[in-house]
Design brief:
heterodimer; A: alpha/beta; ten-stranded mixed β-sheet; 10 helices; 20 strands; 25% helix; B: alpha/beta; globular; binds adenosine-5'-triphosphate; binds magnesium ion
């Protein structure tokens, strides 16, 4: 049965590959072939694969997934309004099942924004210069497949010295099709030197059906450029996501990321940083709250390939019910990357005996003049603190919720977008409330 | 108001309270003294409902209700307040936010509406003056990095905010300098009415100069072995506990 279903999915990939109109983005054919062959040879990872040891991708694939054909969808804007965080304070870009819908998106002064295919035509040189250049197609089966098959996605280009005046809210709504679809989508974000961009990307399930989203985003931040990239994943309890983000930073650039995972059956995030020139600064914040049978996996990789860079990573997890999570944070300080400052911390609390976290900080240092630290903790909620709150008349459920929100605070307070921060606080409070109700 | 009858309690396998009986009426202040480890904090904990204590016999009635039947939050909502000997630090929660939540939970229990933001601020200000506590302290994380004295002052501030019927002060005086001691004691005195009562646990007569008790009890090995007026505290200050312990031992033979 298991093999049958997977064969079905694999057959769909093969069929899609064979039918792929070679004239869609022909200059990519060589790279795409490489990706497809990698996938056919290696297949999806199993638990024997070190990088996938605690995330059972095979079981997530075990469903009658239908490969998304990306038909055009009729949209009633009234149906999607409720998902928008703030249309006055943010520019809005709408993606439906990974496909960009410009007619429902803002025109953003200073930025060039279009679909992947349009970018291939209109910004061909730029596109070819960056597409799949820093993220190895052969990173894993998902990136390989994505390179081979993704035809839809978002392209953002911010030219030199351009500062985008408002944060861009990227709304990803998934699950518009009748079937449970498996979707590939690909984003390319190019910020040239001294340009600045703030992104706030949030993903939701539009309906109750399940989706499997395999998304790859490549971001390039030029010299003295600045990127803020906030992501929120809040999909239904049947949906799966494998989200790979590759960020490349040039000299004197700054990048702040936050990854908040609040909903989904299986969510895997790979966030990779490459600091290719001097004086880069990178901040990585993360927060995950799996409950029910949710499983959230954060893999991060910070590659200090140049001297005098600073990276700071801080992830926190709150595991409830039978929720499970993985944190795997890897830092490499390459030979010659002297005066590197790299810090990493991962803190977790387990709120039930069935909840689970596998945390693994990894630090590999090949330079001698560096300052690095890493650490991980796993604990329970402080019973003394709980009693203290109760002894002031606060009900046990509320006291629990208060302590858990307090635990999340030091990640949330790093988010400078106040409207978004408040939005997150409400979502978290809501999730906790539903959790602690008798 | 509070009627404790033959209360026995243990932690894990260890008997700590071995039959305590105590009657406290409205408007009264009772001091509880006694050597280290005699069970004073345990008594306070059992009254407040801390987990881990097993009441093996006896009863506690609070305004006619069986206190032991209530959860810790219900006890607080009924009007019991414990000022902790060792207040807990809670990062990420400010005292202000915490107090607003607590007051609203108590009001909700009593069938009242949430407190108006304006009224809350007014109340905060008033009570802050009472214990001379700084606003800055209250907007910080609860007790986090507070000095020993600041923590104790914060306990009394919270008590002032919640206006309990029964306040239990567990060694609120330890760690306070002379001025802070006077401020805290004055705060308690101002909160005193004919309708509420206080249990003051202390090792030192000093505090009782300010908060004058109606009764003084000596707890020893889980029992109240002697009760008296405030003069008993003076006698203890002078002579220590030895003579009482000897009395107890003599009686046991
Ligand atoms: N959780 C526990 N586990 C084991 N023993 C405990 C526990 N809590 C209290 N005890 C013991 O019970 C006895 C009474 O402790 P308690 O804290 O009530 O004393 P106390 O009178 O408040 O002393 P102090 O004056 O030092 O504050 C002590 O011997 C203590 O070690
Ligand atoms: Mg004590």
């Amino acid at each position: 049965m298991e093999t049958l279903i997977q064969t079905t999915l694999q057959n769909q990939f093969i069929a899609a590959w064979q039918q792929a109109p070679i004239d869609v983005m022909p200059a990519l054919n060589a790279e795409r072939t490489k990706g497809f062959e990698f996938f056919m040879e290696k297949g999806f990872p199993t638990l024997k694969d070190e990088e996938w040891k605690y995330t059972n991708i095979q079981s997530a694939l075990k469903k009658n997934w239908v490969l998304n054909a990306h038909n055009n969808i009729e949209i009633d804007f009234n149906d999607i309004k409720q998902y928008i965080i703030n249309q006055e304070e943010h520019h809005l870009l709408l993606l439906i099942d990974g496909k960009f819908y410009p007619e429902y998106s803002s025109k953003i002064p200073g930025a060039h924004i279009c679909s992947l295919q349009e970018a291939y035509q209109v910004h061909h040189e730029l596109f070819m210069q960056y597409f799949s250049k820093q993220l190895s197609t052969a990173f894993n089966a998902f990136t390989a497949l994505n390179t081979a098959l993704a035809n839809e996605g978002l392209f953002i280009y911010v030219p030199k010295n351009t500062i985008i005046n408002k944060p861009i809210e990227i709304l990803n709504l998934n699950g518009f099709e009748e079937e449970d679809v498996f979707t590939h989508s690909r984003n390319l974000i190019i910020i040239e030197s001294s340009a600045e961009l703030s992104l706030l990307q949030h993903s939701h399930s539009f309906q109750e059906n399940a989706t499997f989203t395999n998304v790859v985003s490549e971001c390039f931040v030029g010299a003295q450029g600045k990127l803020n990239y906030h992501t929120l994943q809040l999909e239904n309890a049947d949906s799966c996501t494998v989200n790979t983000v590759q960020i490349v930073q040039e000299k004197d650039s700054l990048c702040n990321t936050s990854s908040i995972t609040l909903g989904g059956k299986m969510v895997r995030n790979d966030l990779n940083f490459r600091l290719v020139d001097k004086n880069c600064e990178s901040h990585l914040y993360g927060l995950y709250l799996p409950a029910g049978k949710e499983h959230f996996d954060h893999h991060t990789f910070v590659d200090h390939a140049s001297p005098n860079c600073y990276s700071n990573e801080f992830y926190k997890g709150i595991m409830m019910e039978q929720g499970t999570a993985v944190f795997n944070g890897k830092i490499i300080v390459r030979e010659g990357a002297q005066k590197t400052n790299a810090f990493q911390s991962n803190k977790n609390i387990l709120l039930s005996s069935e909840a689970k976290i596998d945390t693994k900080p990894q630090l590999e240092i090949f330079a001698d003049d560096v300052k690095c630290s890493h650490g991980a903790t796993v604990g329970q909620l402080d019973e003394e603190a709980l009693f203290y709150l109760q002894s002031r008349g606060i009900g046990k459920d509320k006291a629990y919720a208060l302590l858990v929100s307090a635990f999340a605070q030091d990640v949330l307070q790093q988010i400078a977008l106040t409207t978004y921060k408040t939005y997150l606080e409400n979502l978290i409070e809501h999730k906790l409330k539903s959790m602690f109700k008798d | 108001m509070l009627s404790i009858k033959n209360l026995q309690a243990r932690v894990e396998e260890k008997e700590i309270l071995k039959g305590i009986s105590l009657e406290i009426g409205a408007g009264e202040v009772h001091a509880i003294m006694g050597p280290n480890g005699s069970g004073k904090s345990t008594l306070a904990s059992v009254l407040a409902g801390r987990g881990g204590y097993e009441v093996t016999s006896g009863s506690v009635s609070f305004n006619g209700k069986d206190l032991l039947d209530f959860s810790p939050e219900e006890r607080a909502q009924e009007g019991v307040f414990l000022a902790f000997q060792y207040p807990v630090e809670i990062p990420g929660v400010s005292t202000t936010n915490f107090m607003r939540t607590a007051i609203n939970e108590v009001r909700n229990y009593r069938g009242q509406d949430e407190i108006e933001p304006g009224d809350f601020l007014k109340m905060m200000k008033e009570k802050m003056q009472l214990v001379e506590i700084d606003q800055k302290l209250l907007s910080r994380s609860l007790n986090e990095g507070f000095s020993g004295g600041e923590k104790k002052r914060n306990e009394i501030f919270q008590m002032a905010m919640l206006e309990p019927k029964l306040g239990i002060l567990d060694e609120t005086d330890s760690g306070l300098d002379i001025d802070a001691l006077r401020i805290v004691a004055n705060g308690v005195n101002k909160l005193k009415t004919k309708d509420n009562a206080f249990i003051v646990i202390t090792h030192y007569q000093r505090l009782l100069d300010y908060i004058v008790p109606d009764f003084v009890h000596v707890l020893y090995k889980g029992k109240i072995v002697k009760s008296g007026t405030k003069d008993l505290a003076l006698e203890l200050e002078e002579k220590g506990y030895d003579w009482i312990i000897k009395e107890v031992q003599a009686a046991a033979v």
